[in-house]
Design brief:
Layout: E1 6-10, E2 17-21, H1 26-40, H2 44-47, E3 52-56, H3 71-74, H4 85-96, H5 114-123
Parallel strand pairs: 2-3
Antiparallel strand pairs: 1-2
Length: about 130
């Protein structure tokens, strides 16, 4: 994919970002989202707090949430494409000593709690292909 298939820019002074995809493809969407993360030099869990709007051709003009912001992907804390015991152990550690921002804040309520741990357990064993 080249940058020509996506268009990313500041839409206004409120620091929101728009990604326009002219192809309705999971692969194109994933690559565009990864490119935005690279350009912003931030991790997916940090980007989920930003007002990012993704418009995909054929989605009736409605914005969709970036794929890296869905709970199942956020439960993959170390981004190895699988929710596993490493992610669970990391989150158990962050309950007592959460960094800011906390990667294990799966439900995005600005704290790492038992609910976040249960979400990691819910997605345990799932892979992001």
């Amino acid at each position: 994919m080249t940058l020509m298939t996506t268009k990313s820019f500041f839409t206004s002074l409120d620091s929101s970002f728009t990604i326009r995809l002219y192809q309705n493809s999971t692969e194109v969407t994933h690559k565009a989202e990864q490119r935005v993360l690279q350009l912003l030099q931030i991790a997916p869990f940090e980007a989920c707090w930003l007002p990012i709007r993704v418009y995909v051709a054929g989605s009736e003009g409605l914005p969709v949430r970036p794929g890296f912001c869905n709970q199942e992907r956020r439960a993959d804390i170390n981004a190895d494409t699988e929710v596993n015991s490493v992610d669970y152990t990391t989150c158990i550690t962050q309950v007592e000593n959460p960094p800011s921002p906390a990667a294990c804040d799966i439900d995005q309520d600005k704290q790492v709690s038992a609910l976040d741990i249960s979400l990691v357990l819910t997605y345990l064993g799932r892979r992001d292909n």
